[in-house]
Sequence to fold (928 residues):
Amino acid sequence: MINQQLSGKEMFLPKSEIQSLIDLLRNDGFTVVGPTIDQEAIVYNEIASVDELPRGWTDRQEPGKYRLQKRGDDACFGFVVGPHSWKKYLFPPLTTVASAEKTEAGWQARTPEPDSTRFAFLGVRACELAAIGIQDRVFTEGTYVDPVYAARRRNAFIIAVNCTQAAPTCFCSSMNTGPRCTSGYDLALTELEDGFVIESGSKEGESLVAGLATQDLTSAQITKADSVRQQAVDQQTRHLDTEGIRDVLLTNLSHTRWEEIGDRCLGCTNCTMVCPTCFCSSVEEVADLSGETVERQRHWDSCFNLSFSYMSHGTTRDRISHRYRQWLTHKLASWHDQFDTSGCVGCGRCITWCPVGIDLTEEVAAIRGDGSASATGGAT
Amino acid sequence: MRTVACPSQVVDPWLAHTVRIVSITDEVEGVATYHLEFADADTADSYSFLPGQFNMLYLPGVGEAAISISSDPSAQGTLDHTVRIAGNVTGELARTDVGSTFGLRGPFGSSWPIDDCAGGDVVIVTGGIGLAPLRPAIYEFLNRKSEFGHITLLYGARNPFGMLYTSEYDDWQLRGLNVNTTVDRSSQAWQGNVGVVTQLLDRMPVPDPKKTSVLCCGPEVMMWYTARSALGRRIPKDRIWVSLERNMNCAIGLCGHCQFGPTFVCKDGPVIRYDRVASLLKVEGF
Amino acid sequence: MSTSAGKPKLGVFKFASCDGCQLSLLDAEDHLLDVLGLVDVTYFLEATSHIEDGPYDVALVEGSITTPHDQERIQDIRRQSSFLITIGACATAGGIQALRNWADCDDFIRTVYASPEYISSLATSTAIADHVQVDFELRGCPINQYQLIEVIQSLVAGRKPRTRTHSVCMDCKQRGNVCITVATGEPCLGPVTQSGCGAICPTYNRGCYGCYGPAKQIHAQSLTDHLIGEGAAPAHVVQLLRNFNSGAEPFRDESNRVEALT
Fold:
């Protein structure tokens, strides 16, 4: 459990000890998930060895473009965020929420046993901690608790990593979600050349550290850690003006910009799929051919799909412009009413992974009518 | 690691209860009322709902549909749903016979503000199938008649054959409900009003508008005109309630389909105070 | 859907096509007998020489219209069928053979055949819907057998078939695929193509060819402008759009627009 009384002491963890960390978690029954290179990108997959980390690689990102690049060193976490987010583990893309069977006494419904997988996430960035915090509110802190998310989340062990660089698509500083990891983790790492600064955020984290060969930090290491973390702040060029953003958007629902975006937007759902907070889904019936055993399968869905707002007497949002407006106003405006937070963490995934490079910071600036952000960044 | 709070949730919200069709009442063309009972006695005992709430009716292999509950919340007996054939689920329901079983999740959503209406007059404005979610409110008002002033139902239908629950109107009148109907298109036998239902609101006496409540269910444009008419009669905008409709998939505020600005229609609605959605009601495609 | 005789009568008809979509039905192996148990197959030359006369409750039509004879035949099938479903890219958009619509068909005939005078062919390959009313379209090259089973099951049950209309991208992301256009620059039609294949090509590191045709309400120009802006050759983009669904209006019109730029 996070936020218990902790020593708060930062230690030095030699680079070789990362493997020990993975081993301890695996021996403890955790499925360790971390960044690894696959399909020309850094994605999250199950890992067993430190060699699977993208050592010596980084990513170059801009709207609609992502490229892997060699670094000059062998940093394990020397990149930003890729197309995957941790939601694929906590809120799986496809899951069974219920089933039904035809018996002699009629239809009987059943719900599955909670998933007992224990995930350990290695390499969670500050913006991603914020995203998990937001999905916690959505799935576990409202009137109804989602049993699938709750079971996986309850068991998850989080090892955060402080960013030491920023992509041109990053704007976590604008959203107040990073780049420094401040809460919501069991352990947090800051990568230095020969190892890590490690700090605990929970009792579980603390006891895990006790099993590692840590050393006391030198003052040079403390200074270095501060400076690499500051680098991630200094490198951020993209900016989203959040001042009064809820009212700006909700009072501009008829702005001509929506139609302009609607002509560029493909309605392809990529932004919502890569977004670490988007939570929309649909449940579908999957029956065997006899029709007597039925699974209710929940899959990720998107407000960009025409069918998403379908009703028998008409589709509510029947233009792409309506659907882009729904997404943006929900993410940045009505999310505040619903969950007392923005739905955006400034990770920039929707900008990088939009196949035509639509940039929400630019769209918001255009709706504000101040032109304070541009496609190349425009920090103010 | 994190402790996940589960405050009020004792059962999995995805779990459907088995219900059985006790009887079916054909109402009007394409509309029937399904009288249901729970297969499990404990569920039957513990189940209760408020006027305006809905259930998810689940036909395995076909899907779920959000259907308002239209029976009397304080009466023992069957749980009634008045359904219009509109899609796959309701179409399948129409082919389902008495004695068949299917699933039900609920009740979900907000309810009509019966208590807030106490001490004043009540005007119920609706049309067509929109009377179904208001029938439990009518029962509740009549069960507690002494707490309210004049209670009026303004009900419109396309034609005289499109009106629901007509056999109950005499009883409602006797118990103190002023039933006022109108049709879009008249027929020879029809002696009543012709025209849109908001005209009835424009014409009726509203002696104490500040204490008058309006409960409205219908298409969004109809609710907008009803609200405009009510405001014209100096009824305050925070005394007007509407029942919204959106695509509902999960009914528990987790799937995102039913959003209407800040409102999750499934859990913040379907009944919502007009002033909370007024600015969004006429935004095209929102 | 049912008839007085009990099971609905099903006919499977072929026009200009490769037979692959009909084979999808036969390929359904595990489910084939169950599916065929739901209907009475009265015309299906690919599967059986036993044929019965119409009318048919459900007609599955594969292939495009490319000859004067087929023009008449499809009218006859429509007259005899209560519910007509086109299966596959040929039937719904003209197929790969619709590339002839940009060429001189007589020229092809003269080149290929020793005695071209025996060949009776139309100058174009067109979709079934260009000739008769179509009740439901099943997309794909070839179609997805599970979608076909769903359609047959739904019709028998009296439901509207549920086939998804979202883009290939959504399937791709749910499989955990990395977007190949964004990560490598390779052009992919996934964002403007309808789901159905399960994102097979991007899963094997190939751009989507648009086998399932245009998704609903697409802005193809936004994608092509971006691809060309990122360095894709316009001629390559034209080729991408002119594949199995070149005859589908959004792909056809956009390919013409891009071609005019070159």
In short: Chain C has a mean pLDDT of 92. Chain C touches chain A through 41 residues (CB under 8 Å).
